[in-house]
Amino acid sequence: MPSKGVVQVAGNDLSKLSASLLDQFRVEKIGIIFQQFNLLPFGSVLDNILLPLSFAPERRARVVQPKETARKLCTDLGLPDNLLNMRASTLSVGQQQRVAVARAMIGEPALLVADEPTSALDESTQIAFLDLLFTQSQNNNTSLLMVSHDERLSKYFDRVVRMTEIASFGKTTL
Amino acid sequence: MILRLALGSLIARATTVGMTILAIALSVALFLGVEKVRTGAKASFADTISGTDLIVGARSGSVQLLLYSVFRIGNATNNLTWSSYKDVASRPEIAWIVPISLGDSHKQFRVMGTTPDFFNRYKYRSGQSIEFADGKNMSDLFDTVIGADVAATLNYSVGDPIVVAHGLASFTEHKDQPFKISGILNKTGTPVDRTVIVGLRAIEAIHVDWQEGAQVQGQTTPVDVIRKMKLQPKAVTAALVGIENRLQVFGLQRAINKYNKEPLLAILPGVALQELWQIVGIAEVALIGVSAMVVITALIGMMAMIFSSLNERRREMAIFRAMGARPRIILGMLILEAAVIASIGAIFGLALMYLGLYIAQPIIDAKFGLWLPSKAPTLNEFLVLAAVIIASIIASLLPALRAYRLSLADGMLVRI
Questions:
Q1: Which of A37, B67, B302, B400 can bridge A100 by disulfide, Cβ–Cβ 3.0-4.6 Å?
Q2: Which of A34, A42, A55 sits opposite B324 (nearest CB)?
């Protein structure tokens, strides 16, 4: 929680929400792509993609045909149809990453947060992956917030904030 | 879908989950099996004698009279004199009466003198008659019919001669009057299996040269002479009585108990069996207690399994949390998991018990004469299964609450 100022996402002041409302708010408004993807290894690709909808009624309402939407997201992300019913643990790293994106995007959350999603990729695939991410964000009218160590990616983004600009690091005295 | 994922998680841990299910299944099978044996033993115990309305003997205790007359355990302190027996037999209420005379033995088995009518009157397991496996009923004075266990233990067959010993565990034998086996009975699961049955007159015949429990020195009456004697018994040990009208049973019992020429006792076999079972029944409580402990142990094993899986599943739970699952849902998932494991275990246990019963049924019947019916599960058995599932849910609360707290603390950030 901020010590000064406010944190607002999609017009809501986060500091005013209780823990359980925050849970609810997060899953409704934010799709998260984790660095480690965090797929359920024993679940199928389809189950993994549809999982957030189980807990987010607003996002669920936006998806009329969940299976079809998931399939379309996969096609757009370049995942073949026959992967849908495979277990997530059997996929390659690149495929798992795309499943993680599809899972974050389903139900069109207002904000997409990506935590170093490209760190596991080589340079050419990094660019291709970012293209996918941008296209999908634009299609869904979603803002994309991405954390990265890679300075070279900064030119692709509308706004870049360096951690050094907003936080000061120094020795803490105990 | 959450259910499917929870199930997927279970399947992903198939080995440990499988072992836990096996442990629960085995414990449930054991518990149900013990319950089956217990009820079977109780029923079989109550089935030892049926169709007999009263047992009459010298006055002692009802359990004691039952023990020596039916179970051949212990000894009669007194006999029923022949004249009293005749008096009882001549009463109008009586449909049939079979005297039994105990006191001698053959090897480790008791010898019982009775009339050939015994084989028609003595019933067990709700009205089942004793049948001959081989040979036929006694026809000659020195014929004997032996129970299935006697034949099996001593390796006897029809036509073999046997010598009856005087008294129990005695060295003096009635060598002068050997018997010939005329028939061998089918296994009944009652004390009849362990009895050597001879004619009532034969009991008199082998004691012709005996007085006051000892053989008269130098006196041996030839068998031919014995055969011509009247051989009227002076007393019998007890008598099994069937009556015309069951309504008269209490009246007759009272009349016999008040018989004034000799102190007599008439008992209702069913009532005496109940009294006896109350004494034996302490063992059944112990048996149930032990098997209940086994079930509890298995449930604690399941609890330990869930506990130890929590660490490796913190990541899984964090993912659920990140996808918007409230900690409550994590709690519910773990409880559901326990319920599923216990239910599968319980159903497997039931199946296992029936499989075991199917295999062991003929063996137990042949070895112990205990027939365990393989009936459909009773309400009681379903209650046991339900209790196991409910107990598993309660046992799972501890690890589930821990998972709840862990997932609150971890939130969605776990890197393992």
A1: A37
A2: A55
Q: What is the pLDDT of residues B243-297, one digit of tens each?
A: 988 889 999 999 999 999 999 999 999 899 888 888 877 888 888 888 889 889 9
The Cα A49–Cα A33 span in angstroms is 12
Asked if residue A171 belongs to a domain, the reply is no
Question: Within a domain: residue A3?
Answer: no
Question: What CA–CA distance (Å, rounded) separates B352 from B344?
Answer: 12
Render pLDDT for B105-148 as a digit per residue (tens, 0 to 9): 888 899 999 999 999 999 988 788 999 999 999 998 999 999 99
Total tally of structural domains belonging to chain A: 1
Between helices B14-46 and B379-410, what is the axis angle to 10°?
160
Q: Which residue has the tokens 């055969």?
A: B227
Q: Residue B4's closest chain A neighbor by CA?
A: A43
- CB distance B323–A50 less than 8 Å? no
ipTM for the predicted complex: 0.83
Answer whether residue A155 is part of any domain.
no
pTM for this one? 0.72
Probe site for chain A from B3, B7, B319 (most A CB atoms < 10 A)? B319
Q: Is residue A63 part of a domain?
A: yes
**Smallest Cα distance from B402 to chain A, Å:** 18
- pLDDT tens-digit series, residues A23-60: 888 888 889 888 888 888 888 999 999 998 988 888 88
Give the nearest partner residue to B8 out of A34, A43, A54, using CB atoms.
Answer: A43
Q: Is the Cβ pair B12, A55 closer than 8 Å?
A: no
**Contact residues, chain B, for A50 at CB < 8 Å:** 1
